[in-house]
Amino acid sequence: MRALTYHSAHDVQVDTVPDPILQEADDIILRITATAICGSDLHLYRGKVPAMKEGDILGHEFMGIVEDAGPGVTTLAKGDRVVVPFVIACGSCFFCQRQLFSACETTNPDRGAIMNKKGLRSGAAMFGYTHLYGGMPGGQAEYVRVPKANVGPIRIPDALDDEQVLFLSDILPTGYQAVLNAKVGPGDSLAIYGAGPVGLMAAACARMMGVETIFMVDHNGYRLDFARQAYGVIPVNFDEVDAAEFIVANTASRGVDGVVDAIGFEAKGSALETALTAVKLEGSSGAALRQCIAAVRRGGVVSVPGVYAGFIHGFLFGDAFDKGIGFRMGQTHVQRFMPELLEFIGQGKLRPEAIITHRLPLEQAADGYRIFDKKEEECRKVILRPG
User: Fewer Cβ atoms within 10 Å of its own Cβ: the N or the C terminal residue of the chain?
Assistant: First the structure.
């Protein structure tokens, strides 16, 4: 089959690789009909996340048709059209029983990204996302093996096309969980740092949930313009103003009720942070988090769907303590939210496909990565189709 494989930083190629096969009784083999490039994929593409190996198949946002199923698969059948969550969860461990699917303690045999484990087990495996998360082949391919198929994939009604539902795999539930974690609702205010795909999905979900005032912080004008037109946000360009100061000044000098950090560790930091990162004394930029702490009101919540790794300089924990704020963060418990989000899409309350700007064949996936990475052609989201 053909699949997009990692070779080195900024070098991904569509290669011919062996077809996947059933390995466990509850596996399925999925023929991919649509897949997408995620902002998290760019961390791998840029060489910012360790434990990638040459030949690894990328991609964790995908859907398709069940081509084959093991004898232990009881919830799906050949021919079913499904979306697959990026988190691989067993459904029965301590955490899965509590619907904390991204914390599943059985699917990832590797060490995970925890630096100070103290004997803790790793969290869930993920598709196409380094050997820290299980080294599972991803879905930017013609076919993929899906383990634990009784737990993750969700059937899609024929009335909905691929583009309407593809983002159930990651960015839509990630944006939704981020807003829920921010503890905001009707009449509240929210600031979203980062107008990439997750930030845009968070804005869509916040608007659906009745959040009254939404600030969107970025420096890409075309993304801010889209967010303003599509979701009625107040755009804040951090190249032009101090975003947190602007937000506080426009919320009766209190700050917003909740903040979503949809940027993560690749936020542009200070010269000191850049130097510390270069010599491996720091793993992540704290620039976005410092802004979030400054922008949220006392007693508010900072919600972090953006990926972080390693040590952070200048976390300003004293400010967080003084303001009495809370933090909620982590990988998304996708399986928990897929059914209700599918209903919202079917009811027309959410239109996640609105953010798509580029549709390419799988064979042009490397071009898609370059365009998305460089933000060329006013790119917001790239989807790929095999065949």
Answer: C
Residue 358 CA to residue 36 CA, distance in Å, equals 10
Within the chain, all domains assigned CATH 3.40.50.720 are found at: 172-329
Instruction: Give me the sheet containing 296-304, strands edge to edge.
Output: 234-237, 213-218, 189-193, 256-261, 296-304, 326-329
288-304 pLDDT per residue, tens: 999 999 999 999 999 99
CA distance 309 to 353: 30
At the topology level, CATH places domain 2-170+332-385 in Quinone Oxidoreductase; Chain A, domain 1 (3.90.180)
Tokens describing residue 329: 């963060």
In the chain, CATH 3.90.180.10 covers: 2-170+332-385
Gap between the Cα atoms of 337 and 332, Å rounded: 9
- H/E element, 323: helix 317-323
What SS3 state is found at 96?
Answer: helix
Report the predicted TM-score, pTM, of the whole model to 2 decimal places: 0.94
The phi-psi region of residue 194 (left if phi > 0; otherwise alpha if psi is between -120 and 50; otherwise beta) is left
Chain segment 43-92, per-residue pLDDT in tens:
999 998 878 999 999 999 999 999 999 999 999 999 999 999 999 999 99
Of 3.30.390.30, 3.40.50.720, 3.40.190.10, 3.40.1110.10, the CATH number of 172-329 is 3.40.50.720
Paired tokens of 92: 């029965």
Amino acid (1-letter code) at residue 192: I
